[in-house]
């Protein structure tokens, strides 16, 4: 191998010749590194900095051989995903999630269409409200409700004139309010012509009315107490007649508020808490009004369409597994139902709490548009329940929770009481229209208490938030399946018995 | 209606009595408002502030009647979701996306299990590599590759001693490199005992070797040019023998690098760009090494399992629609395939570019761990291709793109050339092992150019990022389906013909 020896000779000679120039070489090496991206980090920062300064010493070197810096194109650094790296930017992941969600749901939608064809049928919706188009029991119920409004107003007027003592007034109010709760129940259970949906609608109206009139009586009582207190403490009475307020509104004070117009404004206003002088917006913004109206119409169609096309087939196909208690298949159906059910709930939320309520508020120039807060960031179950439905939350706080505290009840007791009441009304609104009492909704609501404790105790930040979402996405369809299943068993057993269309 | 008159009288009298006290009442109203949350905004900020100061004037009022502030519990404010509101915190939505993704995929997984049962079978994997356990054609191919490494080293040694002129050296290198590309192709096409997977593996090894040796020859040439330049410019030669460098490593300089050990270190190092002195990490971190090893084993199992359980059934069931060109069903299958395919790709990415490469690097104390950058945040297709596979990107830049620019080619031409080369190798790695030339992969890569133009031109920020994700998630399964379909048509036509298991 003569060549081999030549090669060794060459290298050896170079060694001798240039032993001194090591340093000179050393400083030039990291040219490549100095042009690397700032994201990734090196284990030897100080040294690396030092080298960079060196490279600036001989720029003409670099220019002369444009590929010299190529000679070293690596440098000490960690992979971005390894814990030692300081890189933490995963913004793209959110977009990934969105794309994946859209795709997988597009797939579901297509699969659904291929399997069932188009099931959307707007006409069918009407039949949900009416059995016989010539009898409108639910509508009649709603109209009748005016009677109770008048009773409440009449009682208040008697109270302020002193014709009624506080006791009598209270009794009348209690009777009036309990009738409001019981009368529709009796009617719905008596009249078979009331459809579940129609019944639910009527009951919802009566429940809202109950809460509103309860608030009405409370606030008026507070005003009287205040008047008397002021009178006693010889300070000049704070009650005052109609005078122009800052916003150019007539400013009403007790008992100047005890008129039909005022009460009916409250009845139609999107709030459950009565107030003598609601904040009013300057004017009706036409564009805003029309946008909300458009949303209302569009989302109604969407809700109906998704229910018919997506919910119903899944529910029907999940009857059989439920009958047979085929567990794994039940779970599969439950998860399958969870997605459309959740989407429907989200759409409903926006439709009701944003579009509809803002529409009414704009129409009535009702100023306070806080119908919900940022429940989607809820990190505890409690936060969710305090922020997703502000009208009800406000009412509970003002007419139920705080009075209980004032009466000396403990925070926990009062909170549980609120949940209990809420559970009652959930059950009330579901069981009566379906004419079957299963307590699923009630238990669902009561289950929130241990859940709230668990999440608050063990989960923080994003985990808590995820847990809240999970309880929403999974919890609802369970209750839905329970009720639908029982409803089928009672009413369409033959349908449920025959093989479901899968 | 005597009562009615009484009532009017009462209100009238109060009016007269307290006409002056309107202002006093006015300032007390917004007590409720002042305690509202800062998030939501009011239309009348300045006034509101003013009122807050007022309320501070009479605190004992508040204490005296703890429910006085209840008298006004509303204030002017917009809904959070309406554009007029300043609220923009939707952090919870990310968690929502994650929960939804997990749930829907849990559902898919369960459905899949119910439909197909357990299909995972680790033994079957072996059969993908070997037809006959006594002949290992792919392994033999890999072993043979050492010959080309030796040829490259031999040529370089001859070049430094001047026994070969630059021209001869170049010719030998070109022949050597082209043989590296052609030899395995011929073998794979000749030997029927080479399975597609085995062939793909062997070809991958040879492709990597090709890129490495190409880089090796370039860098050594650059070193020689530099030596001569230095010699000419009478500056003292920068080449130097082995001397201790900062990191305590022996610092090698040309031609001190032309030894087997050095070359084989480069061959096994997780990089395609040769360098005389790679940055080395201080020591082998055992914990790190074992974690990466654990990841490698786990993810391999996961990849195999998901493929057998999730990919294969979908692909089989999508053969029939493809045969019949049933379009809507093809789309449905494509979307259905996109999800597992994408997950597999993500797992593969982590397995190869993070676990495996870091494992090898740690083992060899190879310092530069930048095998990928944050392609998941890519807002343009170009950015993705520049950052998802750094070793290849670095090689293209150093040995293909920059040299082209130096030769005076325009940026666009050079970029297209790079894409073209990349497209060639994609096709090379797919078509040869499958023994069918369909150009799907080639076209898939070339399609990136117009796509890159479109995204860069029309989409910004998150939309660009989403588009990149979409092209990844949708693009791959299309190519996969194409190849698998053609492969089935050729090899298992009878299988594809009979009704697929749906």
UniProtKB/TrEMBL annotation, chains A, B:
<feature type="transmembrane region" description="Helical">
    <location>
        <begin position="467"/>
        <end position="485"/>
    </location>
</feature>
<protein>
    <recommendedName>
        <fullName>O-acyltransferase</fullName>
    </recommendedName>
</protein>
<dbReference type="GO" id="GO:0005789">
    <property type="term" value="C:endoplasmic reticulum membrane"/>
</dbReference>
<feature type="transmembrane region" description="Helical">
    <location>
        <begin position="93"/>
        <end position="114"/>
    </location>
</feature>
<dbReference type="InterPro" id="IPR004299">
    <property type="entry name" value="MBOAT_fam"/>
</dbReference>
<feature type="active site">
    <location>
        <position position="426"/>
    </location>
</feature>
<keyword id="KW-0256">Endoplasmic reticulum</keyword>
<feature type="transmembrane region" description="Helical">
    <location>
        <begin position="134"/>
        <end position="155"/>
    </location>
</feature>
<keyword id="KW-1133">Transmembrane helix</keyword>
<feature type="transmembrane region" description="Helical">
    <location>
        <begin position="167"/>
        <end position="191"/>
    </location>
</feature>
<dbReference type="InterPro" id="IPR027251">
    <property type="entry name" value="Diacylglycerol_acylTrfase1"/>
</dbReference>
<comment type="similarity">
    <text>Belongs to the membrane-bound acyltransferase family. Sterol o-acyltransferase subfamily.</text>
</comment>
<keyword id="KW-0012">Acyltransferase</keyword>
<dbReference type="InterPro" id="IPR014371">
    <property type="entry name" value="Oat_ACAT_DAG_ARE"/>
</dbReference>
<keyword id="KW-0808">Transferase</keyword>
<dbReference type="GO" id="GO:0050252">
    <property type="term" value="F:retinol O-fatty-acyltransferase activity"/>
</dbReference>
<feature type="transmembrane region" description="Helical">
    <location>
        <begin position="437"/>
        <end position="455"/>
    </location>
</feature>
<feature type="compositionally biased region" description="Polar residues">
    <location>
        <begin position="32"/>
        <end position="43"/>
    </location>
</feature>
<feature type="region of interest" description="Disordered">
    <location>
        <begin position="1"/>
        <end position="55"/>
    </location>
</feature>
<feature type="transmembrane region" description="Helical">
    <location>
        <begin position="197"/>
        <end position="216"/>
    </location>
</feature>
<comment type="subunit">
    <text>Homodimer or homotetramer; both forms have similar enzymatic activities.</text>
</comment>
<dbReference type="Pfam" id="PF03062">
    <property type="entry name" value="MBOAT"/>
</dbReference>
<dbReference type="GO" id="GO:0019432">
    <property type="term" value="P:triglyceride biosynthetic process"/>
</dbReference>
<dbReference type="GO" id="GO:0004144">
    <property type="term" value="F:diacylglycerol O-acyltransferase activity"/>
</dbReference>
<keyword id="KW-0472">Membrane</keyword>
<keyword id="KW-0812">Transmembrane</keyword>
<comment type="pathway">
    <text>Lipid metabolism; glycerolipid metabolism.</text>
</comment>
């Amino acid at each position: 191998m003569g060549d081999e020896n030549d090669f060794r000779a060459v290298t050896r000679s170079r060694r001798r010749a240039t032993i001194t120039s090591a340093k000179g070489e050393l400083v030039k090496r990291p040219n490549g590194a100095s042009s690397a991206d700032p994201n990734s980090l090196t284990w030897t920062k100080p040294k690396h900095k030092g080298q960079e300064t060196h490279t600036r010493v001989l720029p003409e070197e670099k220019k002369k051989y444009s590929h010299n810096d190529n000679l070293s194109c690596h440098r000490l650094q960690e992979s971005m995903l390894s814990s030692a790296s300081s890189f933490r930017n995963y913004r793209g992941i959110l977009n990934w999630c969105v794309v994946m969600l859209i795709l997988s749901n597009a797939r579901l939608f297509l699969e659904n269409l291929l399997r069932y064809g188009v099931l959307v049928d707007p006409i069918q919706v009407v039949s949900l409200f009416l059995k016989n188009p010539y009898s409108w029991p639910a509508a009649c119920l709603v109209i009748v409700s005016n009677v109770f409004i008048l009773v409440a107003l009449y009682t208040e007027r008697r109270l302020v004139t002193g014709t009624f003592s506080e006791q009598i007034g209270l009794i009348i109010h209690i009777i009036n309010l309990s009738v409001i709760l019981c009368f529709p129940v009796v009617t719905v259970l008596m009249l078979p012509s009331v459809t579940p949906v129609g019944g639910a609608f009527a009951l919802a109206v009566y429940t809202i009315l109950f809460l509103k009139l309860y608030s009405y009586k409370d606030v008026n009582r507070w005003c009287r107490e205040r008047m008397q207190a002021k009178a006693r403490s010889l300070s000049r009475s704070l009650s005052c007649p109609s005078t122009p307020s800052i916003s150019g509104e007539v400013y009403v004070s007790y008992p100047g508020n005890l008129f039909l117009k005022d009460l009916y404004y409250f009845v139609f206003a999107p709030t459950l808490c009565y107030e003598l002088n609601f904040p009013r917006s300057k004017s009706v913004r036409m564009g805003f009004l029309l946008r909300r109206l458009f949303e209302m119409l569009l989302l109604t169609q969407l809700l109906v369409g998704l229910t018919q096309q997506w919910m119903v087939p899944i529910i029907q196909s999940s009857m059989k597994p439920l009958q047979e208690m085929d567990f794994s298949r039940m779970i599969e159906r439950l998860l399958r139902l969870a997605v459309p059910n959740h989407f429907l709930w989200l759409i409903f939320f926006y439709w009701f709490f944003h579009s509809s309520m803002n529409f009414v508020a704009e129409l009535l120039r009702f100023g306070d548009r806080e119908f919900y807060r940022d429940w989607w960031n809820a990190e505890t179950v409690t936060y969710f329940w305090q922020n997703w439905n502000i009208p009800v939350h406000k009412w509970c706080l003002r007419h139920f929770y705080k009075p209980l505290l004032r009466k000396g009840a403990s925070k926990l007791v009062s909170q549980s009481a609120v949940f209990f009441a809420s559970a009652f009304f959930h059950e009330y609104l579901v069981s009566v229209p379906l004419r079957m009492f299963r307590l699923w909704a009630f238990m669902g609501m009561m289950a929130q208490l241990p859940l709230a404790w668990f999440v608050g105790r063990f989960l923080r930040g994003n985990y808590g938030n995820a847990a809240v979402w999970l309880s929403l996405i999974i919890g609802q369809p369970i209750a839905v399946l329970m009720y639908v299943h029982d409803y089928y068993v009672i009413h369409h057993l033959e349908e449920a018995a025959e093989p479901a269309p899968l």
